[in-house]
Amino acid sequence: MSRKLTLILGAAACTLLCGLCISSQALAQKLQLPDDTGKPEFVHNCTACHLASLVVAVKKTPDDWRKNVDDMAARGTDGTKEDLDKVVVYLDKYYSLQTPAPSEAPHPAPQSTLHAPTTLSPTDRERLKQILAEPGTAQVTASNSKPHTP
Question: How many domains in the chain?
């Protein structure tokens, strides 16, 4: 009986470990780091201990990136000062508070809305007031709307 239990527990442990390994690899593959100066240094010095996606999950100011990288360097990374400077520049360029992440680039407006009027015509305003006055709809005032001029 104990031999059977040992085999079952061993199989469960192997399954769990394999699942954890596969899921961490999948998480690591989701993030595409931009190819640029500093990427190899970032990968070498940061991803030995951290998933890249976790490092860049919170955008920071250049000073905050510097403090964070210096703190990690004090904990034992083997990067040179020049390597760590490249890491800070890389993180600031692609993952700072001022820069949108590469996967979060702004999307252009759909073609159908590019030349749409930004105000309602008087007829449309009246129709909107009628719709909103119907029972069960919200009340909105149109005091800030401008007349439509084609």
Answer: 1
DSSP character at residue 108: P
Which structural domain, as residue segments, surrounds residue 79? 34-102
**In-domain check, residue 21:** no
CB neighbour list of residue 100: distance below 8 Å, 6 or more residues apart: 106
Beta bridge partners of 96: 60
C-alpha–C-alpha distance, residues 9 and 20, integer Å: 16
**Could you read off the pLDDT of 57-111 as tens digits, one per residue?**
888 999 999 999 999 889 988 889 999 999 999 999 999 887 555 555 555 555 5
We report the CATH number of the domain holding residue 55 as: 1.10.760
Q: How far apart are CA 48 and CA 77, in angstroms?
A: 9
The C-alpha atoms of residue 118 and residue 148 are separated, in whole angstroms, by: 8
**pLDDT of residue 24 exceeding 60:** no
- Contact yes or no for 79/73 (Cβ under 8 A): yes
Q: Tell me, yes or no, whether 63 lies in a domain.
A: yes
Task: Say what the pLDDT of residue 21 is.
Answer: 53
State yes or no: pLDDT of 2 exceeds 60. Answer: yes
